[in-house]
């Protein structure tokens, strides 16, 4: 797997994890701009090398790959020509219009056409990319439009027994979650809970702190503000009187996403570290967020473009947003749109896996 574009390293990791789950997993070698810390066990990593005949021949002689999968990025003519000379099949996935560029820039028509002729199949993200590839000489029957690869991280899990027990304890009460709650935002969260509780007096807030050490301090602070608080860390479950249920850190976040129809992303009001919004989105929880989301800006932008999340500016706005999403229909509409965004790349990833297996069967 060659992934020259750092922005698509997550897609490479997601594809690798899917391949690891196969009954007959393949051994992968990734060449990318940066080493991936979350690489699966079936993946080796090697730094990128010069686009030269000598460097490519040395690499191919050392590793003897059965297949090249190129993920987006500009193409490297020498690498591709030597791959073809060695009789190694090649696939291009996640191809954008800009993928038609040669590495280092330039638009030499002859070189580009020769480079792209190496690819047995090309998966384009959209019609614009497919048209650009056809114009530079890629045979139309080698191109298919599949959309982008899935770039999601593994979803946080939970124990089903715990989920069932807590769902029974909560019953039909309306619930919202603050995921990755930070102490700097506690005042805003408390104001929002009081405001939204005026509309739904049985409203339960599940508050999952960003760190385990913060949980006791958060619980104590909320009690001092007059809330009835139960703590997961003390073995308690929420009862009818509980207004806020404080989890014992981020370890069970998958459990809380599955219990709450809406999730406020902690840290996004204050600019402190926050969690990936695709986590609740993929698990069916409507996403609320503040104006500070630099770490996951791309994910928030995708959700916003699909009208699949709701932004808030401050405490009062958060309270109104929670009130609005107490309507099951509104929350479900937002959650459904978010789920569509979070799982949009699954079909393309499935197709890439099919092409990988087909290519490997032919060289077996």
List keywords for this structure.
364 residues, alpha/beta, Rossmann fold, 2 domains, 7-stranded parallel β-sheet
Question: How would you sum up this structure, described in words?
Answer:
This protein has 364 residues and is of the alpha/beta class. It has two domains: 2-151 and 345-363, Glycogen Phosphorylase B (Rossmann fold); 160-342, Glycogen Phosphorylase B (Rossmann fold, 3-Layer(aba) Sandwich). The chain is built from 14 helices and 14 strands. It has helices spanning 9-20, 53-63, 77-85, 109-116, 127-135, 160-170, 186-197, 214-224, 253-259, 278-282, 297-305, 315-324, 328-342, 346-363; strands at residues 2-3, 28-32, 43-46, 68-71, 90-95, 121-124, 143-145, 175-181, 204-209, 229-231, 244-246, 262-265, 286-289, 309-311. A seven-stranded parallel beta sheet has the order 10-11-9-8-12-13-14, with helices on both faces. A four-stranded parallel beta sheet has the order 4-5-6-7, with helices on both faces. The protein has a three-stranded parallel beta sheet with strand order 1-2-3, covered by helices on one side. The chain is elongated, with a radius of gyration of 24 Å. The model has no long low-confidence stretch (mean pLDDT 91).
